[in-house]
Design brief:
mainly alpha; 0% strand
Length: 250
């Protein structure tokens, strides 16, 4: 039987294939995520909520089914569930409406040292950016689920700013390329850590500028970068790009 991550006791039930990449097809290149509120999507909220709920129920049902077959010794059917879980986690799952379901509010306060949150963060970092090919994509999925669990279960943890930054990197990276989510989580990272001088704001500005083509938001963040950061290199970059954007204003 192939090896599994041993995290089934987690509230999210994040049990899925840990290896078995031999002979596997390469992971598909995910498409760029659609915008958070596309034109004509004013009535999509209920459907998006149903899609997300269905995903969770489907995943939980597969996990429960695997446990039934594993306990009964039915190796063949357990392997079928392994394959289906693996396919589920490799599939790209756009968030569709960040404003409804995905990104916690900017008002969260990172103030409590919570052991479970610390442990989840440590485990997520053991998966993040590890492996090659399909195994890399699966490890990114594992890291995402663990990081999201921290935000869901421990929203007052003093790790949430770091969690948001790591999620920004995940969503910006090649396993996702979901740039709207990435920018939103980078923004939460500096909003949840007051006085932070990381590059989170700058990374959000670059995404709004280069990938999302949201010129006005990029200009706003470049100006905030100049006003709030202390890193000379980032300030210089922000000043240069801000000058280019405002000079080209029509």
């Amino acid at each position: 039987m192939t090896r599994y991550t041993r995290i089934a006791a987690s509230a999210l039930g994040i049990l899925f294939l840990a290896s078995a990449t031999t002979g596997a097809d390469p992971a598909p290149k995910p498409p760029a995520a659609p915008r958070a509120t596309p034109a004509g999507a004013a009535h999509d909220a209920e459907l998006v909520e149903r899609v997300v709920a269905a995903r969770k129920e489907y995943h939980h049902a597969l996990v429960a089914l695997y446990e039934v077959y594993a306990k009964s010794g039915d190796a063949e059917r357990a392997k079928w569930v392994e394959d289906e879980l693996r396919a589920f986690h490799l599939a790209t799952k756009p968030s569709y409406r960040l404003d409804i379901l995905d990104v916690p509010p900017a008002t969260l306060e990172a103030k409590a040292n919570i052991k479970e949150a610390n442990d989840l963060y440590k485990l997520a970092m053991e998966y993040k950016d590890r492996g090659l090919g399909t195994d890399y994509v699966l490890n990114q999925r594992r890291a995402e689920l663990l990081l999201q669990e921290i935000l869901q279960k421990h929203p007052t943890s003093d790790k949430i700013a770091d969690v948001a930054y790591q999620l920004g990197e995940l969503y910006e990276g090649r396993a996702y390329r979901q740039y709207d989510r990435a920018a939103a989580y980078y923004e939460r990272s500096y909003q949840w850590r007051k006085g932070s001088h990381s590059d989170a704001r700058m990374r959000a500005a670059r995404i709004y500028d280069k990938q999302l083509k949201e010129r006005s938001r990029a200009i706003e963040l470049y100006r905030e970068e100049i006003a709030n950061d202390t890193d000379a290199g980032r300030i210089k970059e922000a000043e240069k790009r801000l000058g280019e954007l405002t000079a080209n204003k029509k």
